[in-house]
Amino acid sequence: MFFLPRRIVCTVLLFISFYSYGQFIPKSTPTLPSHLQKTYWETALGLQIGGITHIEISPGIGYEPVKNLYTGMGFTYIFYRNNYYSPAWTTHIFGGSLYIRYLLFQKILLQGEYQWLNYDGLDDFTLENIRKTVPGYLAGIGYRQWFSAKKYGDFFLLWNFNATADYPISNPSVRITIGGFFR
Length: 183
Description:
The chain is mainly beta. It contains 2 helices and 8 strands. An 8-stranded antiparallel barrel has the order 1-2-3-4-5-6-7-8. Strand 5 and strand 6 (129-146) form a beta hairpin. The relative contact order is 0.15.
């Protein structure tokens, strides 16, 4: 009988301690300057394996000057190998891009992009390998999926309006990016 009141008191004190916040000190989160809160990073990854091997990594950085309008630039590296030639034709493609993106609805994006790619190509007249730089004028639509308040993933379907035989990527171009804000 003597143990019952002691158990009740201990149980009540235990439950009170769960709801006591007297010792809680919230951590202060450092705030970034306003221009860094609008800055974001992203990277696109691509992979195709088979008769044509295409391995791509394209990191980039961007800025949101006004709400729902994004501008940015990126660097592109592509390892390209075409096994349909004998011997197989291999090249390393380097390039960059400038783009502007608009969030039309909550998750629908419109994008315009200027891209230039530099690679070893075959000269049509001399049949020698030379470095070529080819521009691309891409436009398309995308879908954005937010993973958190800062991180997102985009899926784009882009069309190159300068689709010449020298441009190493065929139409349409599918791009998947992962990115996040520095907020």
